[in-house]
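Module 6 notes. Inverse folding takes a fixed backbone as the condition and produces residue identities as the prediction. Think of it as a translation problem where the source language is geometry and the target language is the twenty amino acids. Below is one complete input and output pair. Work through it position by position during the lab.
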């Protein structure tokens, strides 16, 4: 049995952040019901597409299709909310309230409901009504101002949608905290987070530096702001990264390079001097690393206990023996996915089903909620609900 078995979640989300939140809950065992418009979510892509972004944040969910712009569609969702434990949404603030699906409206029907809102900027403040995307959050949080090559004036975003994914994780953590509180009080509550706050929350060192000293962080490439060498370094056949953040590791690093005298060389003998002279330090180190391959240097560094790693492509990452050993690759319904990286040893994370098609479980979920067959067919006939359409095959 999974950790969240028995928990019913209504997923009224689109794109990434909210969908990732509910997928984490689904992977932990919750019964997540994805609500989509009859035409399906835009991230499904065109029919027959080989890759659909939708699939990788919507596994382990059942799917129903409701037209929430109709009163019958919205009323159907309100009925489902009466017996749900959690409702996750990432519409613009105020949108669901206008449909009678806001927190106050659903909480009146089900006081135990935990209602999680993930938005671009939050439910209050001057930017409340703005649309938000990951790139905008990365820019406004400052992340893009200190991401990229040292000395460059070209803005650079992280290579993954970190504010979307972080918001999803923070939303899931908030839901779990609210569930614990509900055990004590019997009452649900409104949980919220935003892309902007989720991005800013990850600027740990940069915000700490500014709030403590007033210094504004600048681009450092792969370099650490407080330690050297702590960066990507070129070898004979590629790059590797090393993390030398104290004197003990510095000595071991120099021994692994076969350059023990470098540890005490003027300008490199103390942490602050290595940071100050890091350009010269990098040149010295890379002149040595050029004499051997990444794999051989990795073996030498590991023997000395120096933290290091190869700079992998995504293909190389999935071939890494540690990633294989940890079981991060999961397969279900003939598809492969990244497993949620939470290890619960007694109630493990499971992939029970792949991504559902639009409206695949409409009849099943509505019947479970007490709708008669005739009512379900009437909702489908009038367009307030929809059932599965068989996907077209790729040409």
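Target side of the pair, the amino acids:
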């Amino acid at each position: 049995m999974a950790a969240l078995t028995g928990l019913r979640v209504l997923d009224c989300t689109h794109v990434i952040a909210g969908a990732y939140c509910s997928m984490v809950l689904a992977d932990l065992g919750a019964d997540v019901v994805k609500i989509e418009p009859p035409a399906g979510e835009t991230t499904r892509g065109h029919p027959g597409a080989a890759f659909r972004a939708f699939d990788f944040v919507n596994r382990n969910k059942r799917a129903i299709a409701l037209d929430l712009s109709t009163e019958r569609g919205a009323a159907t969702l309100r009925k489902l909310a009466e017996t749900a434990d959690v409702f996750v949404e990432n519409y613009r603030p105020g949108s669901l309230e206008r449909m009678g699906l806001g927190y106050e409206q659903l909480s009146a029907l089900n006081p135990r409901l935990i209602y999680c809102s993930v938005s671009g900027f939050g439910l209050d403040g001057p930017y409340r009504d703005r649309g938000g995307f990951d790139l905008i959050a990365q820019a406004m949080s400052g992340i893009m101002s200190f991401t990229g090559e040292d000395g460059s004036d070209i803005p650079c975003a992280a290579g993954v949608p970190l504010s979307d994914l972080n918001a999803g994780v923070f939303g899931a953590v908030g839901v779990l905290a609210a569930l614990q509180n509900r055990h004590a009080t019997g009452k649900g509550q409104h949980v919220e987070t935003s892309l902007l706050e989720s991005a800013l929350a990850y600027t740990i060192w940069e915000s700490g530096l500014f709030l403590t000293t007033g210094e504004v962080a600048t681009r450092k490439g792969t370099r650490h702001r407080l330690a050297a060498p702590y960066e990507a370094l070129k070898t004979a056949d590629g790059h590797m990264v090393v993390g030398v953040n104290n004197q003990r590791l510095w000595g071991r690093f120099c021994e692994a390079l076969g350059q023990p005298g470098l540890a005490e060389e003027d300008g490199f003998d103390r942490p602050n001097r290595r940071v100050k002279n890091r350009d010269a330090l990098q040149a010295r180190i890379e002149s040595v690393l050029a004499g051997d391959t990444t794999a051989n240097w990795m073996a030498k560094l590991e023997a000395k206990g120096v933290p290091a790693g190869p700079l992998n492509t995504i293909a190389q990452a999935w071939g890494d023996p540690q990633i294989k050993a940890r079981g991060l690759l999961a397969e279900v319904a003939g598809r492969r996915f990244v497993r949620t990286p939470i290890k619960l040893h007694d109630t493990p994370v499971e992939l029970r089903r792949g991504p559902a098609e639009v409206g695949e479980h409409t009849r099943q979920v509505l019947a479970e909620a007490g709708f008669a067959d005739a009512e379900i067919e009437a909702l489908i006939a009038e367009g307030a609900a929809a059932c599965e359409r068989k996907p077209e095959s790729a040409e």
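Reference fact for the lab report: Confidence is low (pLDDT under 50) at residues 391-395.
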